[in-house]
C-alpha cells in the first residue's frame, strides 16, 4: 500500500567523494546561478497575473531550495558572492526589462542543460526538478510562441527572401561583367519587384482565404425558413447533420429553431454560434491589407541590405564582399533568433541560415559568370 504523504521514504543517500577546492568553486557558481534563475522567474512573474504568475513563483521557490542546498554544503566555505554566468545575467536583464517569449525560450534551454544529473553532490530530486522545470517553462512559452508564430514566420520568410534573392541577383549580375551602375539598378529593381510581388501575393492569399471561409460559414437562413417548414419532414435536421452534428444534436438544434425550446438547454449547442466563429476566424487570419504591407516591408528590409555598398558608391569585388558580409550578419542574426525561440542551439540555426543563403548566392554567381563568358 502507498504510504501517506507525510511519511514518504527519504531519498537514499549515495556515497559522495570528499569535496575538494574545485568542488567548492563549482558550488559557489551553482549558488550564484540558482539565485539569478530565481530572480529571473520572479521578474517574469511581476509581468504576469493569475495562473502564470503562480507557476513562475513556484519555479522561483524551487530554485530557492536548490540555492539552500549549495549553501548548506558550502557552510563556512561559502566565501564572497560570485557573479552568475553571462547567460544568466543576460536572461535576467531581459526578464527585468522586457519579459518576452524570448526570455522563456532562453530559460527553457538553460533548464535543459542543467549539470545536476551528473554531479554527485546534487540530489536526485534536484536533477528531476531541473528536467521538470524545462517542461514547465516549455508549457509557458507555448502560448507566446503560438501568438508570435504567424507574424514571426512572415517576418523571417519575407526578410530572408529579400536577403537571399537580392544577394543572388546582385552577385549574378556582377559575375556577368556588367558595370556597378547596372548592378545597383538591378538590385533596386529586384527590391521593388520582389517586395511588390510579396505584398500582392499576400493580399490575394489572405483575401482568398477569407472569401473561402465566408462561403463555408453557415448563414441565418434557418431563422427565416423555419416557420414554413413541414414539421413531418423536418429538413433542418439534415442541415445540422451536414454541418457535422450528431443525430441527437441536430434534432435538438432543429427543435430550438422551431420554438419547442425557449432556453439554451445545451450550452454546447448555442443558438447563434455563427457570429462568434466569424469573429474568431477573421481575427486569426487578419487583414489582407495588413498582411500585404507587412510582407512588402519585410521583403524590402531584407532586399536593401545587399545593395547598401553600391548605394554608397562602392564598386567591383569590394562592394560584393561588403554586401556578402552584411547579408551574412543578418542571416546569422535571424537564424539565432529562430534558434532561441525554438529553445534549440542558436549557433546551429544561424549557420544553417548562412549556408543556405550563401549557397544560393554562390550558384547564381557561377551561372552569371558562365552567362557573361558565353555572351562575351
Protein model, in words:
By secondary structure, the protein is an all-alpha fold. Helices cover 74% and strands 0% of the residues. It has helices at residues 21-46, 50-74, 86-97, 101-112, 124-175, 180-216, 221-225, 235-242, 247-257, 273-285, 288-303, 308-311, 316-341, 346-375. Helix 5 packs across helix 6 (180-216), helix 5 runs parallel beside helix 14 (346-375) and helix 6 runs antiparallel to helix 11 (288-303). The chain is flat and about 75 Å long. Residues 1-10 and 270-285 have low confidence and may be disordered.
Write out key terms for the chains shown.
376 residues; flat
Write the layout of secondary structure elements.
Layout: H1 21-46, H2 50-74, H3 86-97, H4 101-112, H5 124-175, H6 180-216, H7 221-225, H8 235-242, H9 247-257, H10 273-285, H11 288-303, H12 308-311, H13 316-341, H14 346-375
Name the helicity range: over 70%
Which residues sit in consecutive blocks of at least 5 with pLDDT less than 50?
1-10, 270-285
Largest sheet: none
Number of helices: 14
User: Which structural class fits the helix and strand makeup?
Assistant: mainly alpha
Number of strands: 0
Distance separating the two termini: 89 Å
Q: Beta-strand percentage?
A: under 5%
Shape: flat
Radius of gyration: 30 Å
Secondary-structure element pattern, one letter each: HHHHHHHHHHHHHH
Average of pLDDT: 75
Amino acid at each position: 500500500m502507498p504510504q501517506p504523504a507525510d511519511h514518504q521514504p527519504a531519498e537514499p543517500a549515495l556515497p559522495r567523494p570528499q569535496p575538494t577546492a574545485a568542488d567548492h568553486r563549482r558550488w559557489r557558481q551553482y549558488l550564484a546561478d540558482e539565485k539569478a534563475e530565481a530572480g529571473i522567474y520572479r521578474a517574469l512573474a511581476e509581468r504576469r497575473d493569475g495562473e502564470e504568475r503562480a507557476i513562475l513563483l513556484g519555479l522561483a521557490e524551487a530554485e530557492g531550495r536548490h540555492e539552500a542546498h549549495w549553501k548548506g554544503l558550502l557552510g563556512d566555505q561559502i566565501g564572497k558572492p560570485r557573479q552568475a554566468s553571462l547567460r544568466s545575467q543576460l536572461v535576467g536583464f531581459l526578464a527585468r526589462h522586457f519579459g518576452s517569449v524570448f526570455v522563456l525560450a532562453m530559460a527553457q534551454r538553460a533548464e535543459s542543460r542543467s549539470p545536476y544529473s551528473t554531479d554527485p553532490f546534487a540530489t536526485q530530486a534536484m536533477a528531476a526538478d531541473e528536467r521538470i522545470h524545462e517542461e514547465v517553462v516549455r508549457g509557458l512559452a507555448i502560448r507566446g510562441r503560438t501568438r508570435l508564430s504567424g507574424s514571426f514566420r512572415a517576418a523571417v520568410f519575407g526578410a530572408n527572401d529579400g536577403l537571399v534573392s537580392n544577394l543572388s541577383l546582385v552577385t549574378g549580375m556582377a559575375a556577368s561583367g556588367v558595370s556597378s551602375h547596372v548592378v545597383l539598378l538591378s538590385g533596386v529593381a529586384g527590391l521593388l519587384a520582389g517586395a511588390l510581388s510579396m505584398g500582392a501575393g499576400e493580399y490575394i492569399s489572405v483575401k482568398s482565404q477569407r472569401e473561402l471561409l465566408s462561403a463555408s460559414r453557415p448563414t441565418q437562413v434557418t431563422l427565416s425558413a423555419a416557420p414554413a417548414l413541414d414539421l413531418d419532414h423536418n429538413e433542418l435536421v439534415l442541415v445540422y447533420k451536414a454541418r457535422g452534428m450528431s443525430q441527437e444534436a441536430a434534432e435538438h438544434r432543429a427543435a430550438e429553431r422551431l420554438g419547442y425550446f425557449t432556453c439554451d438547454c445545451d450550452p454546447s449547442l448555442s443558438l447563434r454560434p455563427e457570429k462568434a466563429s466569424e469573429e474568431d476566424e477573421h481575427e486569426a487570419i487578419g487583414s489582407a491589407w495588413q498582411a500585404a504591407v507587412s510582407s512588402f516591408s519585410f521583403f524590402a528590409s531584407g532586399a536593401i541590405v545587399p545593395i547598401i555598398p553600391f548605394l554608397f558608391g562602392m564598386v567591383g569585388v569590394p562592394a560584393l564582399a561588403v554586401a556578402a558580409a552584411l547579408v551574412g550578419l543578418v542571416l546569422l542574426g535571424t537564424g539565432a533568433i529562430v534558434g532561441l525561440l525554438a529553445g534549440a542551439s542558436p549557433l546551429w540555426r544561424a549557420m544553417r541560415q548562412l549556408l543556405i543563403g550563401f549557397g544560393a548566392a554562390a550558384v547564381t554567381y557561377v551561372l552569371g559568370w558562365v552567362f557573361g563568358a558565353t555572351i562575351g
